[in-house]
Design a protein that fits this description.
Largest sheet: none
Strand content: under 5%
Oligomer: single chain
Helix content: 40-55%
Distance between the termini: 48 Å
Number of helices: 3
Length: about 80
């Protein structure tokens, strides 16, 4: 029997010099299991249909997020 886990790790860096990313990290820190939290967000996105949700969220982002906060995302 093989005891090695067949896994892939995806890391998420947060730029602490960017106020928006710092705020994201602070929000994530309230969850004891970061990976589980992220997986549930992905699951919710999949269940709601990423295509339509993505367009809807982009419209919300344009209205609600200060564009200067998006610099670290390359936007």
């Amino acid at each position: 029997m093989n005891n090695k886990l067949n896994r892939t790790v995806k890391s998420v860096p947060f730029n602490l010099d960017d106020p928006f990313e710092s705020e994201l990290l602070e929000h994530c820190n309230q969850f004891t299991q970061f990976a589980t939290y992220i997986k549930r967000l992905i699951q919710r996105d999949m269940e709601q249909g990423a295509g339509g949700l993505r367009k809807e969220n982009e419209m919300k982002l344009e209205k609600s997020i200060d564009k200067s906060k998006l610099k670290s995302f390359g936007l």
